[in-house]
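Sequence only, no structure available. Ideas?
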Amino acid sequence: MGDENDAANYVYDQLQVYLCPSWALSLGYMGVAAGACLSNWGSAWGTWKSGVSLLNTGIQHPGSVMKNVIPIVMAGVIGIYGLIVAVILAGNIPPPTVGTGENIYSVYTGMAHLCAGLCCGLSGLAAGGCIGIIGDYGVRSVGYRSSNISVIFSTDKSSGFDGGDDDGAASGDENKLFVGMLIMLIFSEALALYGLIVALIVSQHAYSCGGE
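Reply:
I predicted one. Tokens follow.
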């Protein structure tokens, strides 16, 4: 009977070694780094693209600067998503047990945390790039239309922008362009939100080798 218990304990110990190797911690911290760095990358990308266009357009039409700052704000929010996920993942990575130095962080938990970080980070990167490109062209278009500058060379005034339109028509077209840009920005921001939701759900999947 004692031999059977020793054999069972040996099999259990070996199973724990395979399920909770020392390198499993690196998976979790890679998820933390991916969630924070990739989201911040997307946030910086979107801020850069939109900010350059905003400053360029503000030279000729300063009155539209505050209204067109929306893409920059939405790009900055993406970095907060990555921060939230990184803090949650880092808080769920336990250190080795004191005294024995046994690792209770499993490969299963590490892969779940890595997946969560990549979901949030890559979604934020894609959303930031999308917001930056839309904000770049959108801010320029709204600014050009506000200044009554022709950006499409066409003899037909019904198709495209023309510098000879009256102020009322220019104001109406500017508002239509801004609303269209805002809708595209909202759906672009939703991409990062989808990644955040999935990351929060996946981060709750865990298996501990400590018997808890």
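Residues 151-155, 159-169 have pLDDT under 50 and may be disordered.
Hope that gets you unstuck.
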